[in-house]
Amino acid sequence: MDTDKNCDFSPLKQELQAQLTSIAHRLDRVMADLDENDTCLLNELDEISKSFMLSSALASSYYLKCFLSPFTDKYDEISQSIMRIRLKRLGALIVIERDVPVADLISPGIPLSAEITSSLLESIFVAGSPLHDGAVLIKGDKIVSAANILPLTKKRFSGRKLGTRHRAAIGLSERSDALVLVVSEETGTTSFSLDGRLYPFSIPAPSEGSEFNETAAGSAAAKR
């Protein structure tokens, strides 16, 4: 994945290094405690798992914001809608157009030309909505259209079963520089496709990520 040369990832790297070093120390303690038969490791392993998730969410936030910020001022609204859609176990497919126009690469859906809000994005993907099938197209700070049909990738993925949304996301990102966000209805997992590749990412709910929010805010302040 080629990162934007204008993005300063040094605060992210410093924060991740600190977090991963802490996790490594915890793992060392767990390994040492394995010889103690009366020691319960479940709580410690659970905390380590949570720390990994927070590190993943921190990295996801930085990368996504880096890729999207030059092309839309609505990153916060988009990320909030993704988080809510995930929690409700709805499926979603969102295309953020960057430098390369995608109009000639997709089958057009329903024109909207609406200002981006998290509530509007969420409502589009509610099951039963006439717009929930297909992809939302975002350009700048506008939702251009919904229910667009994207080209599917022809790649074969050994050992992985990808649904239509994921294959559509990869298919469009193979043909353009668009960034395509995907929420899986079946698993609730989130990913984005860029340059024909699929990457997992996570945006924690407020109850899941108070520690992450404090960390990200501190790192963002350092970045500024």
TrEMBL record:
<dbReference type="InterPro" id="IPR019457">
    <property type="entry name" value="CdaS_N"/>
</dbReference>
<keyword id="KW-0548">Nucleotidyltransferase</keyword>
<keyword id="KW-0812">Transmembrane</keyword>
<dbReference type="InterPro" id="IPR053472">
    <property type="entry name" value="DAC_CdaS-like"/>
</dbReference>
<keyword id="KW-0808">Transferase</keyword>
<dbReference type="Pfam" id="PF10372">
    <property type="entry name" value="CdaS_N"/>
</dbReference>
<protein>
    <recommendedName>
        <fullName>Diadenylate cyclase</fullName>
        <ecNumber>2.7.7.85</ecNumber>
    </recommendedName>
</protein>
<keyword id="KW-1003">Cell membrane</keyword>
<keyword id="KW-1133">Transmembrane helix</keyword>
<keyword id="KW-0472">Membrane</keyword>
<dbReference type="InterPro" id="IPR003390">
    <property type="entry name" value="DNA_integrity_scan_DisA_N"/>
</dbReference>
<dbReference type="Pfam" id="PF02457">
    <property type="entry name" value="DAC"/>
</dbReference>
<feature type="domain" description="DAC">
    <location>
        <begin position="45"/>
        <end position="205"/>
    </location>
</feature>
<keyword id="KW-0547">Nucleotide-binding</keyword>
<dbReference type="InterPro" id="IPR050338">
    <property type="entry name" value="DisA"/>
</dbReference>
<keyword id="KW-0067">ATP-binding</keyword>
<comment type="similarity">
    <text>Belongs to the adenylate cyclase family. DacB/CdaS subfamily.</text>
</comment>
<dbReference type="InterPro" id="IPR036888">
    <property type="entry name" value="DNA_integrity_DisA_N_sf"/>
</dbReference>
<comment type="subunit">
    <text>Probably oligomerizes.</text>
</comment>
<comment type="function">
    <text>Catalyzes the condensation of 2 ATP molecules into cyclic di-AMP (c-di-AMP), a second messenger used to regulate differing processes in different bacteria.</text>
</comment>
<dbReference type="InterPro" id="IPR034693">
    <property type="entry name" value="CdaS"/>
</dbReference>
